[in-house]
Amino acid sequence: MGLGGLINGAIALTILGVVGLILLREFVKRWRINLRMSSGDESLLSDGSISMKTITDAPPGSMIVTQVPAVEIKDP
Description:
By secondary structure, the protein is mainly alpha-helical.
């Protein structure tokens, strides 16, 4: 095994490490969001790093309407 094989191995390990870190980061991010949703964290509504595409849990008689933004209603 020459120097070229050693360099190729290092590059392969680096790429696999970066891909693994990205996948781990996404897993932890989704796990934390799921925990926040299950605990009813209201700060999710104003969190700029999260966007909700579809709300599936709503009162009976509700309808999904496209292109209508959700607006937080604050108590006076």
